[in-house]
Here is the input.
Amino acid sequence: MSSNSILEKYPNYKTDIGIEIHVQLTTKSKIFCSCPNTINPQPNSTICQVCAGYPGVLPVLNKEVVNMAIMAGLATNCTINKISEFDRKHYFYPDLPKGYQITQGKKPICNNGYIEITKEDGTTKKVRINRIHIEEDAGKNTHSDASLESFVDLNRAGTPLLEIVTEPDIESAHEAREYLKNLRLIVQHLGICTGNMEEGAFRGDTNISVRKKDSLKLGTKCELKNINSFKFISDAIEYEIERQIIAIESGEKILQETRLWDSKEKKTFVMRVKGEAADYRYLNDPDMPILEIQETWIKEIQKSMPELPQEKKEKLKKDFGLSDYEANILLNEREISTFFETCFKINPSKQLINWILRDLIGFLKEEKILLAESKITPELMANFTKLLDDGKINSRVAKEVFDEFIKTGEVPSDIVKNKGLESITSVNEIEKIIKQIIASNPKQLEEYKSGKTKLFGFFVGKTMEATAGKCDPKILQELLHKYLN
Ligand SMILES: [Zn+2]
Here is the structure.
C-alpha cells in the first residue's frame, strides 16, 4: 500500500481529520432491557416494550455496558469520569419509536485520552481522544422497490454502542488508517467488539477539512458517512482532500456537508448540506439516574483487563523471538496467534512460525475456511515440526507431508512412516549412491573438474532423484564436495 499522500501534490496545504467511531458492544443483552443482543434474521423477534419504545416503560442500564466503556477508556488512556449523565437526543424517524435516542451529551463517561499511531516516516504520534460516550442504537428501515413498501425492524434498537471521538489530529489517509487499525485491534483484544466492519459493528464517520499551511484557523469540514472498509476510507479521504483543495484554489467556498463515498465511481457525493448545526434539543433524561463510578470499580476493571495489542506484540517478540513483521501478522490474527503459542508450548521449534505464516495461513485463505474449521490441531503441528527439528524429513518432503496432514488430519509421523518418506541420513547409503552417479556420468565429472562448477547442482539433482527426494541435504552436500574434488 502506498503511503504517499495526495498532499505531496499540494505542498502549501495541510489537512485536519477527526474520526468518530461507533463500536457495537458484544454484551449478552441489550443496553436498557434484557432482550438478547444478537443478530436475528427474523424481523422484530428480539424486542420488548422497552426497546420498542412503548410509553410508560423504564430503561435499566446494563452494567456490562459500563464495564466495557471503562475498559475502552482505560485502554485508550482516558480519564474515567466519576459522574456521567444520560441525555435524550431528539429526532423523528420510523426506526426510532421513542422519538429520541438515549445517549450521553455534555457529561460522557470518558474524556481526554489518546492512541499512539505510526506516521508515514516511521515515527509515532498521539491522536488525542476527546471523548467516549455510551448510547443506544436505533432499529433499521428497509425499503422494497418491488412492492413500494417500507418496513421497520426493531431488532437492532437498544444495541449498546460506544462512540469514540478524536480531536482533529489526523493529518493524512495513512494516519487515519493507522488510527482505525489500532483502535479496532484494541476493542477486539478487549473482547468488547467483533470489529466486523461489513456488519457495521465497527463503523465510522470522518470529518475532513483542509487549510493553507500558514493558516491557524481550521477549514470548513465535510463529514464522510459510514464507510465500511479501510480501503474505502483511505480512498475517500484522499479524494476529499483533493476535492477541497481544488475548490479552494478556484475560489469556491467549502460548504459544510455530509457526503457519501461511491466506491464504484471512486468519488464522494453530497448526501445533505448542513445549514446550522442540527438541533436535537438535548435534554437530560429524567428516566436515567446519574451514573456514578467509584474508584474501586475502575480498579476492579483494571485488574481484569486482558492484554492490549501493544503489550501482546512486545511479548511475542520477547518470548518467541519473532520479528516485528511476524508479530504484527499474529496480532491481526488472534485465532492463529493462540494456535502458534499452543504449538510452541508442545514443541518450541524455530521452524514453526514460517510454516504457520506461509503455509497454514496460505491454506486457510485458499480454502476460505477458519482455523477452527480445518482438521489441523496444535498436536499435529507440533508432531510435524518435531520431524523437521530431528532431521527425520527434509524440507522437500515436509511440504508434501504438510499438504497431506492439513487436509486429512492424519498424524504427520504416521504419514512419513507409511509412505516411507523418512530422510536417508546414513552416510554409507548416500555414499554408495553418489559413487554410482559419479561413475555413470563421466562427461559431467570431467567438465566439472575443468572448472564448470555449476554442474554441482546437476549431481545434487541426480542424487535427489535417485533417493526420491529423501536424501538429507546436508550430508549430500558434504559428500558430494568430498567425491567431486
Ligand atoms: Zn428489549
The radius of gyration is 30 Å. The chain has three domains: 6-297, 307-419, 427-484. Residues 433 and 478 are 14 Å apart (CA to CA).
